[in-house]
Amino acid sequence: LRLYEMFLGPLERSKPWNKNGIEGVFRFLNRVWRHFVTVDGELQHLDDTNPTKETLRVLNYTIKKVTEDLEYYSFNTAISQLMIMNNHFREIGTVSKNVFKIFILLLSPLAPHLAEELWSMLKPGCTLAYETWPIYDKAHIQKEDYEIVVQVNGKLRDKFSVPAGLEKADLLDLVKSREKVKKYVIGHSIVKEIVIPQKLINLVIK
Q: Judging by DSSP bridges, how do beta strands 145-152 and 155-163 pair with one another?
């Protein structure tokens, strides 16, 4: 019931009450429980291996999203992101214990009873009430590459993927070395280089 009321929508808006909507969040909590707890009440699908890059990306984005949403009382979108993270867990099957701990901590302000129960199974005799809130690492959120559009005098001439973190000068050198771009630039002077980070480069020639 607590989670359902938070999931209805933005806190400051009036929302229609429909008890059938409780089923959605109830299914979410059940999915969390069934994936990680056996019928005998033992934890499952957890190990001590290092998480993959994709799991780290999902984890850190979820930390960022839930933290910011809670600060602005956007409980519904925080819950949605936790649902996305749980779907990721179901896709990969086995989850790192450290990742699972953080997931429980993020869930705890929204579904405290379930979170506390899972925490006591993971760390018997301990409560999560005094645990430190997780902090996201933005390095794991950044994409490894992105698509850049290249124009010459405002006309599309090329489009390709480049690695994230490339310096502006290196990016321009890379663009100018492309065969699709060189044939329009050779014999002309570049009078202006317009760079919109991670989106577009326009070479103005005469």
A: antiparallel
Q: Which three-class secondary structure state does DSSP give residue 23?
A: helix
> pLDDT digits over 122-151, tens only?
999 999 989 999 999 988 887 667 889 999
Maximum CA extent, the chain: 76
Cα 114 to Cα 29, 86, 106, distances in angstroms: 8, 14, 12
For 204, list phi and psi in degrees, rounded to 5: -95, 120
What is the C-alpha separation between 110 and 3, in angstroms, rounded?
6
**Dihedrals φ, ψ of 156, to 5°?**
-65, 125
Q: How do residues 97-115 score in pLDDT, each as one tens digit?
A: 999 999 999 999 999 999 9
Task: Tell me the C-alpha distance between 153 and 174, whole Å.
Answer: 18
* pTM for the full predicted model: 0.70
Rg (CA), the chain: 24
Q: Which two tokens stand for residue 183?
A: 């044939």
Q: Which of 87, 83, 104, 108 lies closest to 2, judged by CA?
A: 108
133: three-class secondary structure by DSSP: coil
Query: Terminal CA-to-CA distance of the chain, rounded, Å?
Result: 67
* Residues contacting residue 119 through CB under 8 Å, at least 6 positions apart: 101, 104, 108, 126, 127, 128
